[in-house]
Amino acid sequence: MPRPRATWQSSPRxxxxxxxxxxxxxxxxxxxxxLEASEYIADYIISRIKSFKPTENQPFVLGLPTGSSxxxxxxxxxxxxxxxxxxxxxxxxxxxxxxxxxxRDHPESYHSFMYKHFFSHVDxxxxxxxxxxxxxxxxxxECAAFEARIARHGGIELFLGGVGPDGHIAFNEPGSSLSSHxxxxxxxxxxxxxxxxxxxxxxxxVPRMALTVGIQTIMEAREVVIVxxxxxxxxxxxxxxxxxxNHMWTLSALQMHPHPLIVCDRDATLELKVKTVRYFEAIxxxxxxxxxxxxxxxxxxxxxxPAPIGASRSQQQVTPASTPPKVPKDLRINTELNQTxxxxxxxxxxxxSRMVDSAISxxxxxxxxxxxxxxxxxxxxxx
Length: 383
What we know:
Blueprint: E1 27-31, H1 34-52, E2 60-64, H2 71-82, E3 91-95, E4 97-99, H3 110-117, E5 129-130, H4 139-152, E6 158-162, E7 183-186, H5 189-195, E8 209-212, H6 215-219, E9 223-228, H7 234-241, E10 260-265, H8 274-285, H9 350-354
Parallel strand pairs: 1-10, 2-3, 2-6, 3-5, 6-9, 9-10
Antiparallel strand pairs: 4-8, 7-8
Helix pairs in contact: 1-2
């Protein structure tokens, strides 16, 4: 008699390679423009959250990136929230990375980025937000505590990410271990050079290290969604989809994930073979929506994982019952980025009313009017 196959519910930590009977396949969606690709992903995330039907005790766990690529996704999500189409009240988020040594209220910290572009505009409770602390006294303990918090929430349901021109996702740059978890990572010079545009084009101001989730952390998510837009991402997409699994192109690790979804604009497919593009387009043309191909949405019980030795009490996950009425001062977001907004622009709402100096007023000037995609984008992050 064949041995019964274990289901992911029976394991404290879900193994993506021991997936249920759902079909495993690489899903690729191609849209003409970067904006269309971003809107598709935003709609996809909303559909997954709604299908999950999260509650306070059974939240939807969402992994999030920063950088140029996801800005339009966040703006679209905020618009849907303001229209009443979606709530993030029962969503728990884990961000991919954060610079080491950069103050939280620095305008280029990923704390500031997330509050500026997303958290300050929706109804997500502050205690549901998890971002790595790049100023922790013990960085190794901070990384271990981050992994422990993910495990205590039953793992990440959907991890959204971008990809760098060299094929890296998060700060897992070429040569990163494909079995890595959250850790301290020294940044490559190319990444420092690319990110210098956010620091007045002065490479000396760019942090040399970052905390980042590892490739295995991403692979342990039940579903991974990657956005890739622009011709400068074309080689990375080609290596990730058509090349072999290679630690020099960490995006390629997703070939081994049971439920990856890559959403590209037309420019990002320029290096792919014509038959590859036509294959994925034909799948969609047959009426097979990527949303029908994702894994079944079943709540995974939380697993108790003690915090590692060396992690401070302030790094532990805050529970709703112990949430302070005001966020501690060290979580305040820089409010000196005062910019005027047009009437139709996004403005901070519920989060700003619950946090002291929390909301950076509005979106930056590049988000006004039509969305323009930075051709160097996504180097900063979630890649």
